[in-house]
Amino acid sequence: MIGFAALAAITIVASGDALTVPPQAPAGFTTITFQNTASEPHAIRIVEIRDRHTTDDFAAFLKSGGAPPAWVRTVGGVAAVAPNVAEEYSTVLPAGRYVVLDGDRFAPLTMVAGGAAATPVEAADIEVRLHDHGFQFSAPVEGPKPLWHLRNTGTEPHQAVLFRLTDGMTEYAARNWMTNGAHGPAPGDPRGGVLEVPINGEAWFRVDLPPGRYVLLCGELEQEGRHFDLGMVYRFTVE
User: Fold this and answer.
1) From 194's CA, which of 61, 77, 152, 205 has a CA 20 to 30 Å away?
2) Residue boundaries of the structural domains of the chain
3) H or E segment and range at residue 222
4) What is the CATH number of domain 126-238?
């Protein structure tokens, strides 16, 4: 587990027929261990429900297929991980009502006030600054399971999505898969990362990195295109 003082820790599991989420946890710094026990890649978004709206309202919004209303705000999440892969992900979740979203299924999560503040007690192996539009690394990426610390210093939300480029897979196949909403068989090995780091936000994560060629991408969409089309791509190799 990522080392933080006074840290809430929860486990979320995506299986083929269920999404298992604890009903509540102490607010503040939280480590989520996300386990994918299904036979296909899964990702989770953590969505805050504001202004006295309910999970029933959220279900109605999903069913409508419309644009996200103002009372819905994505605050983080774990990018797609391959089957039988787990990621540790840490961020700040203030007191409030949330849902954990996995595709078209979701489960409620309430962050209860009174959780203690936390600070890292373990130095990150890699510091990554997310800016408009690129990644700035403090050190090369080395396996097998480094601790990443992400800081968003840009003017818009950013992502840090990892793919292991297996034989015959290209960076562009991963980009196309993300552009198409991660539907269909994954063109390689999704290795997690973070789905959204808010403006001025931070996140930590740790996931196994087997040897191979990797690409780190931001797939956030804006008027000019996906951020990876604007240069937010980082390529590296783990020996």
Assistant:
1) 61
2) 8-112, 126-238
3) strand 221-222
4) 2.60.40.420
